[in-house]
């Protein structure tokens, strides 16, 4: 049986992460990258028709972007009930990707079109477009920069007003690049990132790109909640900084979870 390129890449990526989790056995040298397990604090309803690409928490609400051509949207969602309070449909020719808030605006990406949009946060009215090279996957922010993933092992840093790229870092584990870095969230000075088609979330040092922790979210969505042919991969991280709450979900998942992390025993 011949494996497709994406499948081979996924296997190589998985082996790299697994090796980092047990570094002494693989290398006979450095300590393993710290690993984190989770506990579920609370479970919330989530629209199972939402192919989640971007997620953030702001002022008591979730903001979510969904993908797929002719199905992409940006939504304001009531956390407690999953009710969609406000929705903007992205033009049908675009595959919607990540979103981030900046200065009362929502900045959004598209997958392969090399075009992004800036919307008013309150009204969802389009304010302008911008352009970038390559694919657009996800966005997050710190206090001075916007951070973008593009499906590779690199993260781009953008100037928030012009949305022009200023620098890049490469995401690495034990010196080896990790591709398919997907949805992003800035949490306590680190970048948290989903890795596409895995149950792992990486904790990334924003200065060096080095992975400083690996979160294993296997088993988060129970088997009885999985609909074959519909339920897709883990994707979507949001953080309530004031309440110190971490939320995660997935594409076409019926639930969104508040979780608490614990360092796993070595």
What does this structure look like?
By secondary structure, the protein is mainly beta. It has a single domain (33-263), classed as Methylamine Dehydrogenase, Chain H (7 Propeller), CATH 2.130.10.10. Helices cover 8% and strands 48% of the residues. The protein contains two helices and 22 strands. The protein has helices at 5-21, 23-27, and strands spanning 35-45, 52-58, 61-66, 73-78, 84-89, 96-101, 105-110, 115-120, 126-131, 138-141, 146-149, 154-158, 165-170, 172-173, 176-177, 181-187, 190-195, 200-204, 211-216, 234-240, 245-250, 255-263. The strands form five sheets. It has an eight-stranded mixed beta sheet, with no helix packed on it. A four-stranded antiparallel beta sheet has the order 2-3-4-5, with no helix packed on it. A hairpin with a 6-residue loop joins strand 3 and strand 4. The longest helix is centred in the first third of the chain and has 17 residues, at 5-21. The protein is globular.
Name its key features.
single chain, 266 residues, mainly beta, Methylamine Dehydrogenase, Chain H, eight-stranded mixed β-sheet, 2 helices, globular
């Amino acid at each position: 049986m011949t494996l497709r390129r994406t499948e081979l890449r996924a296997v190589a990526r998985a082996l790299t992460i697994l090796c980092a989790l047990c570094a002494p056995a693989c290398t006979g040298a450095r300590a393993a990258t710290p690993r984190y397990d989770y506990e579920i604090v609370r479970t919330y309803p989530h629209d199972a028709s939402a192919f989640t690409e971007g997620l953030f928490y702001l002022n008591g609400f979730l903001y979510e972007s969904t993908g797929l051509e002719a199905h992409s949207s940006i939504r304001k969602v009531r956390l407690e009930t999953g009710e969609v309070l406000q929705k903007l449909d992205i033009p049908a020719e675009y595959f919607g990707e990540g979103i981030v808030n900046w200065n009362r605006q929502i900045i959004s990406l598209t997958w392969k079109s090399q075009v992004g949009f800036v919307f008013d946060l309150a009204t969802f009215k389009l304010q302008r477009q911008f352009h970038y090279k390559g694919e657009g996957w996800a966005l997050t922010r710190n206090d001075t920069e916007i951070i973008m993933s593009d499906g590779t092992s690199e993260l781009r840093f953008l100037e928030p007003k012009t949305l022009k790229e200023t620098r890049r870092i490469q995401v690495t584990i034990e010196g080896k690049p990790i591709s398919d870095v997907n949805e992003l969230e800035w949490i306590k000075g680190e970048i948290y990132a989903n890795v596409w088609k895995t149950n792992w979330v990486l904790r990334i040092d924003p200065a060096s790109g080095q992975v400083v922790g690996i979160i294993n979210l296997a088993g988060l969505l129970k088997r009885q909640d999985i609909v074959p042919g519909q339920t897709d991969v883990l994707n979507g991280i949001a953080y309530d900084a004031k309440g110190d709450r971490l939320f995660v979900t997935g594409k076409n998942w019926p639930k969104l979870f508040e979780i608490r992390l614990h360092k796993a025993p070595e």
